[in-house]
Amino acid sequence: MKRLAWSLLIANVLAAGFFLARDHWPTASAPHSAPFNVDRLSLRRGDAPAATPRPSALPVEALCIEWRGLAADEFARVREQLKTMAGERVMSFTEIPLATRQWVLFPPLPSAEAAAAKADELAAAGVQDVFVVQDGPWRNAISLGLYGNEEATARRVRELEGKGVFGTRVELLPRQGTDFYFVVRSDDPDTLKDLGAIRQAYPNSQQSRIACPR
């Protein structure tokens, strides 16, 4: 009996100690999460606001200057000056005849033999004023006549088509002894300004801004 009483007393002491000590045990830590701190809030890289796109650059408009009124010797000197400028800058120039003729022709054939055969074929169809070009950039083309105006040229083309000749073309050729002028083209306004400075040495010539030929 005395042993039972001691056993109950020890059990009560242990139970009391358990409940008293439990209040001092560390609580299980919750999953770690940083406190929401507005002052330290930062956006992830993927959430960064998109940069405002820059407006695309507008295409640069080509500028053209027409340069007229140069004497024959002046024209030759200016040609060399323009060649030098074209080698140093982004620009080009064209020599335009003041007076032209219109050349009706059949485009170059692969060989002189083919051109001769085509000329015979045209002659057999009743086409007159036919000859094969022997040299130059139009070698082996077939000349079908030179005309002084568009009306005469158009009449010739209609005549040829009436005889079954198609595929002709019209080229402008300078008239013999005609004067020329320059058309200078560049995307750089400073280049065209420099042309004005060069013109001071040729006071009888004129420069004017024009729409660039297409």
From TrEMBL:
Name the record gives this protein: SPOR domain-containing protein
Please list which residues make up the signal peptide. 1-21
Q: Which UniProt keywords apply?
A: Signal
